[in-house]
Amino acid sequence: MVNPLQTRERLPVNQSINDPLIQTERLCLHYGTKPAFANVSLPIYKGSITALVGPSGCGKTSFLSCLNRLTDLIPNAKVTG
After folding, report:
1. Residue 16 lies in a domain
2. Is 72 or 61 the better-scoring residue by pLDDT?
3. Do residues 29 and 37 lie in contact, with contact meaning Cβ atoms separated by under 8 Å?
4. Residue 9 burial by CB count (10 A; 0-12/13-18/19+): exposed, middle or buried?
């Protein structure tokens, strides 16, 4: 059995240790003509703690659905991370 504390993760060749693990730039989501959220830019770095805070209905769950690819992306959208 491998001890996870003794293994080292390797970054992809083109990824720097200072690059965000997950990043959005000007991410928008609409349900029909109603915007769920607009222009969300957020870098999330490895080892960081990030919280989404806001009132009910402000788009927190919709934002996470976009990150998990549970919503359809528009053509030419780039997903990394």
Report:
1. no
2. 61
3. yes
4. exposed
